[in-house]
Prior knowledge:
The chain is mainly α. 43% of the residues lie in helices and 0% in strands.
Amino acid sequence: xxxxxxxAIKAMKRGGREAERELLGPGFHSFNRTxxxxxxxxxxxxxxxxxxx
Length: 53
């Protein structure tokens, strides 16, 4: 009885992973990203003149 439940849980997890992979595609996808402040310092060229009048 207990073995059957563990097999069912494993199958459900496997099915969920496969469904998520089909939905999002291959690779890693982050769901919880940290918020980056507007005031954070960056040296990238595309941010050099942003915010200047």
